[in-house]
Amino acid sequence: MTAPEASYKAYSTVFQSPIPISGFTQTEDEPQVRVTFGPVASELNNPTVVGPLWVANRSEMLLTAPNLGRYLVTDGNSIIIDAPDQSARLLTVLAGIPVATILMQRDFLVLHAAAFDHPTLGAIAICGENGAGKSSLVTALASSGSARICDNLGAVTTDRDGHHQLHRGPGSFRLWAHSARDFNFDPAKAHRVSEDVDKYMFTDDAALSEAPPVLLNAIICLQTTDVSPGGVTRPAMSRMDDVSATAFVAENHFRNELASTIVPQWFTRVSELATSVPVYRLQRPETGCPPNELGEFLTRELALAIHK
């Protein structure tokens, strides 16, 4: 029996789906993207770019998730899932590359980022490698007065005045098991992101995925360094020059090799973003700097930089 379809919103985009999409807010708004279950071919016609487990061209992306199923994303308005069941893991995958591809097909830039909205600093995106501590840092800030904007995918557009807007993502966020326990979240009550990764999906009930986009005021390059000679023993922050900032933002665009195929004038738009929004390098020591302390340091340094 097919479940009744409902509409769910995040990233200023409405998805109609027969299954709830993790962390997305149910809405009565007119759907822009339809998620359906049905047969998907094992190969894509005329692929122009190939990545791990996916292939794509300008208008289509085919993702093959081992032991789960296939996802065909087309023209910014359709996701077809070919899978034997509707497991929680299937939904976790849906909220990653398939949703990111839809956003790129709809002309968003999509940073691999977590982001928060500070009462006085505004919207700040945190980028960095997997395991750098993006989600933990934003979780710490969300517990001390900031609002979580997104986790994993940071969707950016440019308004008619040339300002870069960050769109609010779903209320779901991911934490490593040890980090979750530090914040008093119980991994046993959450579903695991992947069988081979000790990371879990949680929901922030205070997140407002239906709220309008916000002005992006800064991008943070979060880096972890060891405490050996040449490393840092305490947090340090500095503004990146335009060349370094552009390279960093391009590197931290979600699936940049896919984006360069899908998004028109991708690198030009990335360069415009990196040179118009301040980009700062935030270095944290590998040990001895918990997320709450790093969050206090970041907001203090940003306040000084922004109000110079």
Compile the SSE list and pairings.
Layout: E1 6-10, E2 13-17, E3 25-27, E4 33-37, E5 49-51, E6 54-56, E7 60-65, E8 69-74, E9 78-82, H1 88-94, H2 97-105, E10 109-118, E11 122-127, H3 134-142, E12 147-150, E13 153-158, E14 164-167, E15 172-176, H4 177-182, E16 191-194, E17 197-203, E18 214-225, E19 236-239, H5 242-251, H6 256-262, H7 266-276, E20 279-285, H8 291-306
Parallel strand pairs: 2-4, 4-9, 11-18, 18-20
Antiparallel strand pairs: 1-2, 1-3, 5-6, 6-7, 7-8, 8-9, 10-11, 10-12, 10-13, 13-14, 14-18, 15-17, 16-17, 19-20
Helix pairs in contact: 3-8, 5-7
Question: Which descriptors would you attach to this protein?
Answer:
single chain, 308 residues, alpha+beta, 2 domains, nine-stranded mixed sheet, 20 strands
Task: Tell me what the structure shows.
- By secondary structure, this protein is α+β, with helices and mostly antiparallel strands.
- It folds into two domains: 6-105, no CATH class; 109-306, Rossmann fold, CATH 3.40.50.
- The protein has eight helices and 20 strands.
- The protein has helices spanning 88-94, 97-105, 134-142, 177-182, 242-251, 256-262, 266-276, 291-306; strands at 6-10, 13-17, 25-27, 33-37, 49-51, 54-56, 60-65, 69-74, 78-82, 109-118, 122-127, 147-150, 153-158, 164-167, 172-176, 191-194, 197-203, 214-225, 236-239, 279-285.
- The strands form three sheets. It has a nine-stranded mixed beta sheet with strand order 3-1-2-4-9-8-7-6-5, covered by helices on one side. A five-stranded mixed beta barrel has the order 10-11-18-14-13.
- A hairpin with a 5-residue loop joins strand 13 and strand 14 (164-167).
- The longest helix is centred in the C-terminal third of the chain and has 16 residues, at 291-306.
